[in-house]
Amino acid sequence: MRGPHNIWRLIRTGATFQRTGAMNAVLDAFDTPASVRFVARTLAMPFTFLGYAGDTGMPPVTRALTALGPAYIKFGQILSTRPDVVGDEMALQLRVLQDKLPPFPVSTAKAEVESELGMPVDRMFSEFSEPVAAASIAQVHRARLAVSGEEVAVKVLRPGIEKAFRKDIDAFYLAASVIDFCSPGSRRLRPLDVIEHFDGVVQGELDLRLESSSAAEFAANTEKDEGFQLPRIKWEYSARRVMTLGWADGVPMGDNAAIDAAGHDRILLGDRVLQLFLNHALRDGYFHADMHQGNLKVAPNGNIVAYDFGIMGHIDEYTRRVYAEILYGFIRRDYKRVAEVHFEAGYVPADKDVDEFARALRAVGEPIFGMDASKISMGRLLSYLFEVTERFGMETRTELILLQRTMVVVEGVARSLNPQINIWQVASPIVSDYIAQTIGPRAALRDFAKTARVMARFGPRLPALVENALIRQGNPEPPQKDRGLFRWVLGAVILGLTIGISGSLTLILVDLALF
């Protein structure tokens, strides 16, 4: 239930950070100005006794986030992939949030499995291990199917996780409402829309039937991707709170020493993980939106193995083209085109100056080129981007939240494998290929063919639809005896116009394609 009672939750959040020592660690990691440090500490200090103590054996920030609950843990998981933003030490501390959280008892997991699947665990599995990984929402057990002897992973939701997430997200809604009311300048970021979007994503993650469906669709899309593989879903052993899939052998993506010991090329893996994400996002419009190290392995054959499909991203074809053109413009250093794409897509208000916006984008993009990637401060870069977007009145695009967030996470994974990686050089061939296939005369011809097929499908209904529209606008209904003739003439006119326009555009597009 959303309401003022969540103020208590927000107060305890600040108090927990103060009590665990996480406040100072976070302020240091983000190089916070002295004035902000003073205000934060002054506000939190009187309420320190209200904060959760957490596990004293954990580092301060990890201790605070785990004490506060699953939504905060999710936030920490994202930061763990960005050592360039929070520093190597904190990133290492936060990495335990990915799959090494305290587990719940195996007896509880077995009870959940039996309740969901409707039969004793011993009849379904000849082996069922203690938890091998425990994350914020669920934990995983290694098991063996009694029927076939195949090794599988059984994912089980944490008891009471739905209620815990609801409590956190309700507090986030209140915080977003306060920001929206008290800070008009922040409204362009649409904080309420952002939280609503996050809420929807989380609700989908809490139903493992949806995750199983996502995994199956993702597997179908990526079946031919070289160097990439996914475990298969076992539908007969999956339900709302339980999901069973094939066991994935391999080295954890976050363990560089083990990757090196296994003889894998980390530079190649860094390039591949970034290119795979771009391919899935641009080519398919359907991508793994939680690609941190805890959800990735390196198989013995060198393939990247992905699992945990609770958060998947989807973007429509138009948005993919806009995103690709923006990336392509930065890669080519064509900032004027990048600015124009922002205006054409409605991302920047039309009353702003496109040339001035292009100059601002140049100031963002130019430092990236010709530099050692390890010397680029993504924290300062993102800070400057925020200033630019605020200056030009850009609003947060909720449909791109997952895409933007995942791009940050994937870049962090790639950089952890190869600190010298240049994201623009690695992305260039994927984005260029997508641009070549989707933008230009041949792509326009394919788009028109799709439109013609849709029109042909609905062609028989067009006369009746137009007639009904005219009637609703107050035009007199044609006499019954003339209605058949009316429809015939109207259909002939529409068909003629369709054929004429189709023919003209086709000739123009073919002519363009030839040149």
Automatic annotation (TrEMBL):
Domain ABC1 atypical kinase-like per the UniProt entry, residue ranges: 97-342
Keyword Kinase among record annotations: yes
Record GO terms (molecular function): ATP binding; kinase activity
Cross-referenced InterPro entries: ABC1_dom, Kinase-like_dom_sf, UbiB, UbiB_bact, UbiB_kinase
Top-rank taxon, per record: Bacteria
Keyword Transferase: yes
One Pfam family, short name: ABC1
This protein's pathway: Cofactor biosynthesis; ubiquinone biosynthesis [regulation]
GO BP terms: ubiquinone biosynthetic process
Residue intervals passing through the bilayer: 485-510
Keywords: ATP-binding, Cell inner membrane, Cell membrane, Kinase, Membrane, Nucleotide-binding, Transferase, Transmembrane, Transmembrane helix, Ubiquinone biosynthesis
Similarity comment: Belongs to the protein kinase superfamily. ADCK protein kinase family.
Descriptive protein name: 2-polyprenylphenol 6-hydroxylase
Organism: Roseobacter ponti
Organism placement in taxonomy: Bacteria, Pseudomonadati, Pseudomonadota, Alphaproteobacteria, Rhodobacterales
